[in-house]
Amino acid sequence: MNIKSFGILTAATIMLSAGAANANLLFDIYAGATYGIGGYTMFADDNDISKSSQSYGAVLGMDIPMFRVELEYNYLDSDYMSMNLGMVNGYFKIPTPVVKPYIGAGIGTTFDSKYEPRNLASIDIKDTLAYQGMLGITLNLPVIPFNIDVEGRVLYAPDMFEMVDAEPDLLQYEGRVKLRYVF
Q: Measured between alpha carbons, how far is 130 from 113 in angstroms, rounded to an integer?
């Protein structure tokens, strides 16, 4: 092999290796779990009901330098309500080295949910659209493959179920921690 061919082969190998190494910088696939604590308010004409709540969830997503897209499942639990949510979220983030602030929005649906007020029969919550907004920071620790998100979230779901003269809306607000494993 002559020196010219060896040089071209070496340059091609370096360029392809650098391209493969930089592919991880372009996007990362992740999976994770969430835990949140907060409260909710049901708005039904003049009868507003506020209670505390907790949420548990799982996420699967793709992280690119300025944006993040994820699928999210949440289970909301409180004294009188249990709700399942499926959401699609989009985030805009500021690409700083370790602490990355972000803002996000999501849309999805409620499913297989119940409202069980005291001394009344259980009411099925109908499948309805839900919207959410998030504001938080990501702690991107350089050596380990985990990211930690700390965020505030507000969820809105209109017309949850039918009452005598109203269809109450739900406003759920919480502080949340999300642990994401980056593949």
A: 13
Between CA 127 and CA 137, with CA 131 as vertex, the angle to 5 degrees is 135
Which DSSP symbol is given to 145? S
Task: Give pTM, 2 decimals.
Answer: 0.80
Q: Contact 175/152 with Cβ under 8 angstroms?
A: yes
Phi, psi of 179 (to 5 degrees): -110, 120
Q: Block means of pLDDT (10 residues each) for the chain, length 183 residues?
A: 59 52 69 97 82 96 93 93 94 90 96 81 85 96 90 93 78 96 92
Q: Determine the Cα angle at 81 with ends 77 and 83, to 5°.
A: 65
Chain Cα centroid distance, residue 126: 22
